[in-house]
Amino acid sequence: KRHLVSAADLTRDDALLILDTAEELAQLSGRAVKKLPTLRGRTVVNLFFEDSTRTKTSFEVAEKRLSADVINFSAKGSSVSKGESLKDTALTLQAMGADAVVIRHHASGAPARLAQSDWLRGSVINAGDGTHEHPTQALLDAFTMRRHLNPGNGRDLAGRRITIVGDVLHSRVARSNVHLLTTLGAEVTFVAPPTLMPIGIENWPCQVSYDLDAVLPKTDALMMLRVQRERMNAAFFPTEREYSRRYGMDGIRMAQLPEHAIVMHPGPMVRGMEITAEVADSPRCTVVEQVANGVSVRMAVLYLLLGGAVFADNAEPARTE
Ligand code: CP
């Protein structure tokens, strides 16, 4: 495969290869091998049309650990603000020799448009497009779940019960996760207010519930989602108090989870609305660990798309420096 646009495009073997590669890379980092020469001489452009803290930074760290030349492009401050199109932006980057473009865009489908076009010759990696998908987030989430829920080195997530709670309607994280987690054999349940559950959810490969308290005792990993006010008409904002009462995660609800269960959040968190500080700062909450895992997973994706035949053949990782 040349691009990573959607978690739905990943077969079970693809997903396991990325997760296993990320595990090997994480172990190298743990052994103080901070840099690999794999992408030396290759140029990766981080093309961000929407704000980001975690994804943008961790892609940059991942690219630098693989010795790529990194160009950070933010729509703010670029000629996009003067009306330049995605096509002309892509052609400009191609003219500068981009081998890969990591793109975040407010429009669902923008990364697919780039991947299908002849504007760029390199790989396209989706870093979040509108309400569509965020595949590397789902991969780092699966990586985190696998570490916590499969201590016996099981490779997939067969039979694990994952509950995803909150603004499913606007969540690209939920969409990528439902594809990837079911590909890996997990059972996914969405819990959301009826106004924040997508129309047609009955056709998704998941269970649906409106009762968080009933689902908690049957959950191995609980993923809280942010309410994305920036994608909503103000008339549809849920009130913070009502939302927290029915769908927020607090210490009382955390006690209803099985002892082994973890609490996840892709970030950014809105403390007080979907998650209390007591939960966010508890040892069961993996939000910071997810960020660290994101670097290994993004290294694996870049490695396999741009330089990865060596790894894909299960040989030793490239020479270290
Ligand atoms: N989880 C995530 O995508 O966070 P950022 O928006 O900060 O990149």
Automatic annotation (TrEMBL):
Q: What is its EC number?
A: 2.1.3.2
Q: Where does L-aspartate bind?
A: K82, R172, R226
NCBIfam families the UniProt entry points to: asp_carb_tr, PRK00856.1
User: Which EC main class describes this enzyme?
Assistant: transferase
UniProt xrefs under HAMAP family: Asp_carb_tr
Which biological process terms from the Gene Ontology are attached to this UniProt entry? 'de novo' pyrimidine nucleobase biosynthetic process; 'de novo' UMP biosynthetic process; amino acid metabolic process
The family database entries (PROSITE patterns) matched by this protein are listed as: CARBAMOYLTRANSFERASE (PS00097)
The UniProt similarity line reads:
Belongs to the aspartate/ornithine carbamoyltransferase superfamily. ATCase family.
From the UniProt record, give the pathway where this protein acts.
Pyrimidine metabolism; UMP biosynthesis via de novo pathway; (S)-dihydroorotate from bicarbonate: step 2/3
| A molecular-function term among this protein's GO annotations | aspartate carbamoyltransferase activity
Q: Which InterPro entries match?
A: Asp/Orn_carbamoyltranf_P-bd, Asp/Orn_carbamoylTrfase, Asp/Orn_carbamoylTrfase_sf, Asp_carbamoyltransf, Asp_carbamoyltransf_Asp/Orn-bd
**Which reactions appear under catalytic activity for this entry?**
carbamoyl phosphate + L-aspartate = N-carbamoyl-L-aspartate + phosphate + H(+)
Coiled coil residues, start to end: none
Q: In what residue span(s) does the Aspartate/ornithine carbamoyltransferase carbamoyl-P binding domain sit?
A: 2-146
Query: Aspartate/ornithine carbamoyltransferase Asp/Orn-binding domain spans which residues?
Result: 159-305
- Keyword Transferase belongs to the record: yes
UniProt organism field: Kitasatospora camelliae
Per UniProt, where does carbamoyl phosphate bind? R54, T55, R104, H134, Q137, G267, P268
- SUPFAM superfamilies linked to this entry: Aspartate/ornithine carbamoyltransferase (SSF53671)
- The protein's name is Aspartate carbamoyltransferase
Cellular component GO terms held in the UniProt record: cytosol
Function of the protein: Catalyzes the condensation of carbamoyl phosphate and aspartate to form carbamoyl aspartate and inorganic phosphate, the committed step in the de novo pyrimidine nucleotide biosynthesis pathway.
Q: Which gene encodes it?
A: pyrB
Q: How does it assemble?
A: Heterododecamer (2C3:3R2) of six catalytic PyrB chains organized as two trimers (C3), and six regulatory PyrI chains organized as three dimers (R2).
Record keywords, A-Z: Pyrimidine biosynthesis, Transferase
